[in-house]
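Async update (no meeting this week)

Hi team, since we skipped the sync, here's where things stand on the single-chain job. The sequence we agreed to prioritize is pasted below, unchanged from the tracker. I ran it this morning and attached the output directly underneath so nobody has to dig for it. Comments welcome in thread, and please keep replies under the output.
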Amino acid sequence: IGRHKLRNDPVIRQPSSSEHLVKQLRMSMAPVSQFFRECTSTNPNSGVLSSDVFERWCQWASENAYVHRLTVTDFERKAIDSNPGLRTTIIRMGSTAQRQFVGLELKKYD
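Output:
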């Protein structure tokens, strides 16, 4: 019966009861990628300061019981490594310069 059903419908569906396990696995393997999936979206007309994204990352990591030891610079590197196409630029704000993620926006915080 199982093989016949699989031939007729070759898609293996993930049961909703396993969603929390999949999230835990993703968290342990690539927490920065998981953060970007949950907390950001792409928008070619947007940009967000990397310091703002890092601040949200710290909140998210704490809420998800993930202990991180990343600096802002380490976080930026991991973000770029885990998100092909993500670009950064330097913007001037008065006498200081800050790095901005281009084409990214933070989702509304619940």
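Quick observations from my side:
The first strand starts at residue 40 and ends at 49.
The beta strands are 40-49, 87-93, 96-106.
Reply here if anything looks off.
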